[in-house]
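User: Could you check the structure of this?
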Amino acid sequence: MSRRCAWVTKEPLYMEYHDKEWGVPVYDDQLLFEMLCLEGAQAGLSWWTILQKRENYRKAFDYFKAEKIVHYTDEKLQSLLEDKGIVRNKLKIKSVVTNAEAFLRLKEEYGSFANYIWGFVNHKPVVNHWKTAEEVPVSDAISDKMSKQLKKDGFKFVGSTICYSYMQAVGMVNDHTLECFCHPAHQKSTFRE
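Assistant: Sure, the predicted structure tokens are below.
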């Protein structure tokens, strides 16, 4: 019988996210940016809350096209504050614009945002071998370092816990538990692409 990580509920959307996205390496700049924004939106909330609103977020934030977001006017920000489809937190909404500016700067400097962000794990996913969900940390030395650097580079809502959650989401860290069928130990090759 196929087992999933213990945190996954029976909700089809959650199961699909776990099975097809969580822990799978992402190198696409726009998706990396989207996930960073969504992880920031999650601060103080559950991932399930954000996952259910993900399509609303995509529409509200022009599918996370940073080039568009950096030109948001006060009127656009006000309309986002009134959008019931997303978390209406002024600081979180403004952080998407701030983060878009930092994202574009780093993309220019490093050739891609992927080059920059994957550098924190030496451009290779960290595959952990946890037996239980309780063993999985909420942060580590890498997420601490990433958080400090992202803040220094102008990002907001990038604390160490958010960074660790982000690394899990974009496959920089694979924290599927050993019993989970998504753990690389159950795959034909080490990486799922």
